Amino acid sequence: MAGKLYLCATPIGNLDDMTFRVLETLRSVDLIAAEDTRNSIKLLNHFDIHTEMTSYHEYNKYDKAQWLIQKMQEGTNVALITDAGTPAISDPGEVLVAECQKAGITVTSLPGPAACITALTLSGLSTRRFCFEGFLPSQDDKKARKRILEDLKDESRTMIVYEAPHHLKAVLKDLLETLGDRRITICRELTKKFEEANPTTIQEAISFYEKNEPRGEYVLVIEGKSLQEQDAEKQLSWQEMSIEEHMKIYEDQGISHKDAMKKVAADRGVGKREIYQALLDKE
User: What is the mean pLDDT of each run of 10 residues along the chain (283 residues)?
Assistant: First the structure.
């Protein structure tokens, strides 16, 4: 009988956040695959867990995934843990999960801490709709980084981004340049004694970190562009062309003159009568 893969969330700071279910699983499985065994041994020792460990990380994620799958096919139950938080979130665990699904290995996830959700709930920004970007492409890959930032420019959902301290200033400047000044909550030391969730703006954050060196791992929760702002920008872009040009776009699609006027009026945020009168004045 084949073994299973257990995705075990571990604390992101406060060890009291470890769940009873994860503890029981880490003790009962045959093997623990850890992102960094040197970090994980401290966690396991704290909870008096002596299960065998093996490394599974960014640099061996493909080859080691096949080795782990073979073990599970032979009946080994494997728990996957990351250095902190939930496996497969900005983590090579996503590769192992995908490969297990291809191989028909059962995967189950044991919920627990996740820095992105913790930061979102502390942010004071909208939690109804949000998107998680993880780490942006590095500054060395300027093309990919610019493309992702441009994609975020018109994002209406609250955005969550991870960043290391030595890159924080650069990412804040890139966000300001691409998104403009927005509300942002900057979180660090989550669940720890000196936890911080600082609601501010991107511009204010840049000024702060010019005087204060960033320390610790950061989670940035960024306000999305409001739907009203998006609508206003669309209306402004339509107004850059003449009403005749605007009408032609729709009439070239086979739309009747009357219906084209309705669409043009809606695009520009005005009444149909105003479009009708403007066209009359041009005749």
Answer: 96 96 98 96 97 97 98 98 95 97 98 97 97 93 93 95 96 96 97 96 97 95 85 68 77 81 78 72 65
Complete domains list, the chain, with CATH: 4-113 (3.40.1010.10), 116-225 (3.30.950.10), 228-282 (no CATH)
The vertex-101 CA angle with 69 and 137, nearest 5°, equals 95
Q: Give SS3 for 194.
A: coil
Pairing state of beta strands 78-81 and 4-8?
parallel
pTM: 0.82
- Name the token pair of 73: 């096919």
At 248 the three-state DSSP class reads: helix
- Buried b / exposed e along 232-252 (16+ C-beta atoms within 10 A): eeeeeebeeeebeebbeebee
- The β-bridge relationship of strands 31-34 and 78-81 is parallel
Whole-angstrom Cα Rg for the chain = 26
